[in-house]
Design a protein that fits this description.
By secondary structure, this protein is an alpha/beta fold. It has a single domain, classed as Metallo-beta-lactamase, Chain A. 19% of the residues lie in helices and 24% in strands. β11, α5 (187-197) and β12 (201-205) form a beta-alpha-beta unit.
Length: 241
């Protein structure tokens, strides 16, 4: 797994920190989880020889789909043809005429959907966010990865997501107060979610620009001391063994 971007909630034009995007690879397949602002340049820098088989889009916010057009137009980065995996609602918000896409480009999924492709499988669950958003559990190369995408603390984790080797979980807030969004997690809620997922390793991501993840990391570790927590950073590579 290579982090192409992990900044959350907004794209800072001055800092130019790439937003959410995570590249999962085995010897036979490459799947991109989201492609927020700044992630195409990050792909060129950190994974220039990787040929992508599919892009999963969790939802239509720009920090998750902002560079989609760049990826779709770069025909040489695809192993075969462009393929998108997403919900009908997300497509309706980002593509004016989804029916005009070439045959085989689009796979529509939703809450509770299970799909099997030639070399990977995915399960999907609707999270609690401002717009319809899907979390995903990916089985690839004999390993499983859970990607929470954006969610509030009331997301109901499906049994099929439990026990994955790695959880990629957002942590937009450090600590919640009465003005905090109900559509994102704080560090304690992130720790509880990972504990409920029973994942041995968890990557904390989606931290807003100019905010530190150190405090978030400490809080999450206190809640789930048996989990190996670490912070997402652009360019970070994690081997799933």
């Amino acid at each position: 797994m290579t982090v192409l971007g992990c900044a959350g909630s907004s794209y800072d034009e001055a800092l130019r920190l790439p937003c959410s995007s995570y590249l999962l690879e085995s010897s036979e397949i490459a799947l991109l989880l989201d492609c927020g602002f700044g992630t195409f340049d990050s792909y060129v820098l950190h994974a220039p020889t990787t040929r992508i088989d599919a892009i999963f889009l969790s939802h239509a916010h720009g920090d998750h789909v902002g560079d989609l057009e760049a990826f779709m137009n770069a025909t040489d980065l695809w192993r075969h043809q462009p393929r998108l995996i997403t919900s009908e609602k997300t497509m309706s918000l980002i593509v004016r005429e989804p029916d005009s896409l070439p045959e085989g480009t689009l796979t529509l999924v939703g809450d509770g959907t299970h799909v099997e492709f030639a070399r990977f499988e995915m399960d999907f669950s609707l999270t609690t966010h401002q717009m319809p958003t899907l979390a995903a559990c990916v089985s690839i190369g004999g390993r499983r990865v859970v990607y929470s995408a954006d969610t509030g603390p009331t997301w109901s984790i499906p049994p099929s997501f439990v026990g994955a080797e790695l959880a990629i979980v957002e942590c937009t807030l450090e600590t919640r107060d009465e003005s905090s969004s109900l559509f994102h997690l704080d560090a304690g809620e992130t720790g509880k979610m990972v504990r409920d997922l029973r994942a041995p390793r968890a990557m904390i991501s989606h931290i807003p620009p100019l905010e530190s993840g150190i405090g978030r990391l400490a809080i999450a570790r206190d809640v789930a001391p048996n989990v190996n927590f670490f912070l997402a950073t652009t360019g970070l590579q994690v081997k799933l063994i």
